[in-house]
Amino acid sequence: MAQSLVKKIGVSLEINGEQRQVEIRPADTLLYVLRNYLGLTGAKPGCLNGDCGACSVIVNEKVYKSCIMLAVEAVESKVTSIEGLSDSPIQKAFVEHFAFQCGYCTPGFIMNTHAMLLHEPHPTYETIKEWLSSNICRCTSYQEIEDAVFSVIGRDK
Amino acid sequence: MIGKGIPRKESLDKVTGYAKYTADYETPDMLHAGLVISPHAHAIIKQIDISGAVKMPGVRAVVKGENLPLTGEELSDRPPIAYDRVRFHGEVIAIVVADTPYLAERGAAMVKVQYELLPVVNSPSEALRQDAPLLHPNLGEYKKIQMVYPVPGTNIATLTKIRKGNMKKGWDESKVVVEEKFAFRPSDHAAMETRCSFAQIHPNGTIEITSSSQAPFLIKRLIGQYFNIPPGYIRVNTPLVGGAYGGKSSTQLEILAYLASKAVGGRLVKILNTREQDMLTSPGHIGLEAIVKIGSTNDGNLKVAELLYFWDGGAYSDKSIDLSRAGAVDCTGPYNIENIWCDSLCMYTNHPYAAPFRGFAHSEVLFAFERTMDVLAKKLNMDPLELRYKNAILPGHTNPTQVRLTSSTVGNLPKCIKKLKEIFNWEEGQLIELDDERVRAKGISCIWKNSTIDPDASSGVILSYNTDGSINLISGVIEIGTGTKTVLAQILAEKLKMDINDIHVQMEVDTLNTPEHWKTVASRGTFMAGRAVLAAAEDVIHQLKSLASFILRTRVDDLEVGYGKVYVKSDSKKYIPIKDIAYGYSFPNGNAIGGQIIGRGHYMFSGITYLDKETGAGNPGPEWAVGAQGVEVELNRRDYTYRIVRAVSVIDAGKVLNEKMAVGQVMGAMSMGLSFAGRETFRFDSKGIVLNPQLRTYRPIRFGEHPIYEVAFVETPVKDAPYGARGLGEQGLLGMPAALGNSLSAALTVNINYLPLIPELLWKVKEGG
Amino acid sequence: MLAANIEYYKPATIQAALEQFYLLKNKRKRPIYYGGGTEVLTLGRLNLIETDAVIDLKGIRECQSFEFDQEYLITGAALPLTYIEEKNLFPLLTSSSMGIADHTARNKITIGGNICGQIFYREAVLPFLICESKAVIAGENGIQIFALNEIFNETLQLEEGQFLLQLLTEKRYIHLPFVSIKKRQQWDTGYPLLTVAAVKVEDQIRFAFSGLCPFPFRSRKMEDELNNLQLPLKERISRALLQVPSPILDDIEGSKDYRLFVLRNTLNEIILDLEGK
């Protein structure tokens, strides 16, 4: 078996409020561990290069691209993936404002927006741009996402 | 129900991370494949040494390309795995199958290939040269289908001709003539989901493939055709697709997944493209070089158009043949021109080959044609909007393939232009000087598009009732993000006068149990599958009425279906709830009749014909969608930077079925068009190597770089379409490159005929830098 | 995803990091220091960085400090760029930092990682070059302090086993008038065509550049020409352009000639801005 070829280490990760024991290679990214070992496939691979933001998750209230983070770096941290988010205002707003089409970038956008609102509940347009330009959406025009975000903040652009 | 902005049916899955795409399926028995790809654009393969990879623990097989059939949708010119020669950077040379993705990747790195470099064909014009290296010396021997006209001994994969009217007459009547040249390189779809396929071969020989595809039924057909497998032994599944834009309608990765599975005794093998492979190895967006020459009278009546299109189809012709044909069919803008001559050549180059791209060759042709229209307007000293209005194509005119148009087939372009004029404040002037450096400039483009689809393309729908009277809707349309399946539910809800929440749509497609929908391309989902839904609804209505007439003891034609009931038209108190008969009807004494009601419907276009080889005459597709678009920029004339302020589309939608989704489709397409026009291109070095196969160097537009979008519709119904709706998924994109080019050309009073429209290009053209 | 296997260590002290490095070295491993790790992961997956052991510096307290002492602003090498931006103790650095990559990525990218990276823009070093900061470096010989302008020559000249611990910037530089500009091929995303950081120190403007050459640099020769008030501005810039080190980048982001055009415009903007102050 391949597993015997690889030195794996046992780590404990706190993901969406649950302690998860998992055997990982130290070279494994957090994205790989979430998807391939834990079956949490909400974070998406889009580039594995830190460019597109589809794999964004929250670690200790900060948003990270999980493809450019080793899973071992998240030990002793609280990891929240899209699966850990339910009924948040931003999820609802994305539906109401048609802020996605294919939906592939959506978990990343939602996690990033959620992290932004945790950090700054009333961001300026500049701040929103600063944060959300970390992700690529190829289907919408971004105007829909902008509308969704502003609806949650409760004001117009 | 029709027209309403109903959120898409799969909304909650998509905002919670529960929506599953192909790569999200993973099982412990799954093996993984890594691809070995060519670092060269053109080379002889001297040797492939797989010994290192084969010896690696965890590697289960290494697949090479000898003895495989040639593939290609219209012309069989492509070995699925290169074995004697590579023709583009990124071409697959071997597949390594291993226990895990990282072992597969390591194995792939262990495969050593020796090459002998060949001279490179780096553009269509280079491909045309007498002394150009020939990419396909055996071009004359390749298998092909109808309407494919390769020129053996050259790099021309196909030549499509349009000959309409009398060119001499056209030039004689023209007092003003302009000629412009255009060029842009291939680029990419850059869907956020990279392509992924997995395949296994069951003990009885059934090949089961799951793939992120717009065309699972095509995969089934082509795999069968290439490898001589009866259709019943191929099953293709498609879950939700993470963006496609045409790029996932080609069959490519699926063939590799099948070959990989075959190499390991039919075990399940997954291939997930890296972003780099998705951009290089899988097919991308076609490039073009064009020469457009048009003539008009002194008062601006277009008389003649002579067009040369040289498509950069890349190393293999696959779908670029069809693209070059579509570019010929709509080779002009949407104008009444009696004399047209067009040669559209699909050229082989040592570039990644092409898949369809949203708009199917139209944004490309329109960039060339609509830029030339502005050049003509300037020479005529005429308002460019006025020039377009004056020549707008109308019912009664003929298109380049000589089809006589009707209001149903061509819609109402003048109305779109008028509406654009108003929304876009055209009256305030095309140029507004803001200060001594900055200027605001507007550019416009008209658009049209027919969908050149297979004459026998069909779509089917199955409806089945649940015991509570709700319905399951099964269609072969793929949910690629366009929301078509939600629109189908709306059409059904309207037809059966029922609550849309009682319609359960199967999002996934499994070719074993889903009726075929040709391909989810060409903005045809709503038209074809919509008609199939209506036919299937008629079928269930007929069944419900038959059963109800027996129970209610009335004539079938006195009955009506709606609101969860079958009722007597003249006495609505006399009815039977559908839930009581949806699974058959049980009499009080226990006798029962009927059974689960299952409806079926299908639709196939009629009247589409092949095009004549010498003149191109023929009916290419069901209808045109037309529109008018505008882009406004704010440009700094000192440093040539600009930002896009506003983009406007007015589109004849026939009928808007779901307003919010329709607007979303148009805005999304506009965004993609501006991104393509403003920044996207593959950058090739002199050896044909793509220098930017990553999203950090190939950069789609981002949040905050976007302008304000405005979308308006005109509604001129199409006779045969559900509720009169025209295709809508692509139109928003079509005029964006031309309108952006026109705005910048106006701002700088210079002709900018290349893409992408980056400040460096503007500087070069203006200052000759 | 890194296909290769690696070992991961996260020492808590400078000493432990150095010991780990030499221990691995003695085992014939190829250890590298790891800050944010974004380059290790992105270049590693393309086999452009080869390593079998990473030593994460984020556990070392000194690498995480961001504060003023008597004389200096201390900037720890393992600080994420967004942390530096949010604290905003050094506005010029904040401004230069905000142009790098994107916001989410900057939660991970560290300042030391950017300065010591293989990707040749290394824009985070520009403010330190023009503020004549000092580099605190840990190595076999203990902790040493160097003038950054001496030890940074295209790259930070570290010897095997050394790592950047902190940067020290004299307080007097922190609130001087500055400009930081990033020009890209198109709009607001992507690598620089040109990034310039400039600061006005006693009527002299200092400049550092990234994206012009395949390395970031500060050029005294260019500064001399640009500060020569005897000549008209256009002339000063033209003369400075002759002093640009070679090679000037000529790549997919922009041609050499275009970069010089952008440089000319940008210098003009900066000088008009700062000389007015």
Write the layout of secondary structure elements.
The complex is a heterotrimer of chains A (157), B (769) and C (277).
Chain A: E1 9-15, E2 18-24, H1 30-37, E3 56-59, E4 62-65, E5 78-80, H2 89-96, H3 106-119, H4 125-132, H5 143-153
Parallel strand pairs in A: 1-5
Antiparallel strand pairs in A: 1-2, 3-4, 3-5
Chain B: H1 11-16, E1 31-37, E2 43-49, H2 51-55, E3 59-63, E4 85-86, E5 92-98, H3 101-110, E6 112-117, H4 124-128, E7 156-164, H5 167-173, E8 176-184, E9 196-201, E10 207-211, H6 216-227, E11 234-238, H7 253-263, E12 269-272, H8 275-280, E13 284-285, E14 287-296, E15 302-312, H9 320-329, E16 339-347, E17 354-355, H10 362-380, H11 384-391, H12 407-410, H13 413-423, E18 431-433, E19 438-450, E20 458-465, E21 471-475, H14 484-496, E22 503-505, E23 509-510, H15 525-552, E24 559-562, E25 565-568, E26 571-577, H16 578-581, E27 583-586, E28 592-596, E29 598-604, E30 624-636, E31 642-652, H17 659-678, E32 708-714, H18 731-734, H19 736-748, H20 759-767
Parallel strand pairs in B: 1-12, 10-11, 13-17, 15-16, 21-22, 31-32
Antiparallel strand pairs in B: 1-5, 2-4, 2-6, 3-5, 7-16, 8-14, 9-10, 9-12, 11-23, 14-15, 18-19, 19-30, 20-21, 20-29, 24-25, 25-26, 27-28, 30-31
Chain C: E1 7-9, H1 14-26, E2 31-34, H2 38-44, E3 53-56, E4 66-68, E5 72-76, H3 81-87, H4 91-97, H5 103-106, H6 111-115, H7 126-130, E6 134-139, E7 142-147, H8 148-151, E8 152-153, E9 155-156, E10 163-170, E11 178-184, E12 192-201, E13 204-213, E14 215-218, H9 220-226, H10 233-241, H11 256-275
Parallel strand pairs in C: 1-3, 2-3
Antiparallel strand pairs in C: 4-5, 5-10, 6-7, 6-10, 8-9, 11-12, 12-13, 13-14
Helix pairs in contact in C: 3-4, 9-10, 10-11
Short description:
The complex is a heterotrimer of chains A (157), B (769) and C (277). Chain A is an alpha+beta fold and 157 residues long.
